[in-house]
Amino acid sequence: MRSFTFQAPPNILFQRGASRNVGELIANFDARRVMLVTGKIVRSAGLTAGAEASLAAAGIGVSIFEDVVTDCPSYAVEAAVAACRADSIDVVLSIGGGSVLDTAKLVAYLAKTPDRLDDIYGVGLAKGQRLPLLLAPTTAGTGSEVTPIAIVTTPTAQKKGVVSSVLIPDWAILDAELTLSLPAFVTAATGIDAMVHAIEAYTSRHRKNPMSDQFARQALCLLSANVRRVCEDGQDIEARSQMLLGSMLAGMAFANAPVAAVHALAYPIGTSFHVPHGVSNALMLTQVLRFNLPAAELLYAELAPIVDFQAVNLVVAERARLFVDAMAAICRDCEIPLSLAEVGIGAQDLNKLAGEAMKQTRLLVNNPREVRFEDALAIYRDALGDRMPP
Description:
It is built from 14 helices and 9 strands. A hairpin with a 5-residue loop joins β7 and β8. The protein is of the alpha/beta class. The strands form 2 sheets. It has a 6-stranded parallel β-sheet, with helices on both faces.
């Protein structure tokens, strides 16, 4: 067995209503002032109210930064860092979706160091210290609350990543009550995003390891068993809890065995056409799985019984194909767009998308099968009208 490292947060709290008790956790850091990083929609929905009340009860001052928007633009990060420094913040707390949590990670780091955001894009370039950091997700999708990764949209509309163990938070707080108000469409998109994390971690070419495999398998089990339920009944708190746990486990898996071509081809769709990240992943998932079959057949066959018990008695090739079909069926049943045409992408856009996808070398290197420009173009072309029949 080859050597590996595995990194995860030192503390994980999985508890309904946990966000209403953050004052007790933050008091342990001897903090006088906390910055709450969130979004306007999250705060206006009342999702931060319990945390704010808990902080007030603990006598901890709060500065609120709620100007985070989808896809974490660099200007929002820089504005939050400036506010954090100006308010002499001791601890960063974040409640929100992936973009919000990613912003908070960078704020906690950049407010403590002289580094500039432009200097730390890439792997391992953020090497300084950061402020104490607590993250509470409001979606079951990104797994950002347990990863060392923050994705930023640059002024040129490129998505760049900051990857460093320094960004792993002190506390990941999983409170399923924060996900109850998610509409079905967002629930589906984020749930499929989490499943993609699990699948790509399990098939990652370079850093796949026994621990990431176990987390990926358990994540896929929880997510595939519950995603249809939560799309049908968003108030099913038990299913919501299982989804949140699955998302976190998938996050821990891909934090240590990185994602690959699904994400690489999804990023240009999100940045160029403003398609939500989970939807972009869903649009690419089936086609990339089919493309990868020659190289990942055995691994897909191993995952197949998790999503469809009928795969148990099939031969490897049939199990692998069933796995691809089962994932496509989940996307269909959750009513996610299944073709690029449905999100306004035409044949004239495919060359540009393929060119942008090839810039995602950090991700493509992890794919079980090499992806060339011609391959990316063919995948996009197939996805242009890839709707399964009812």
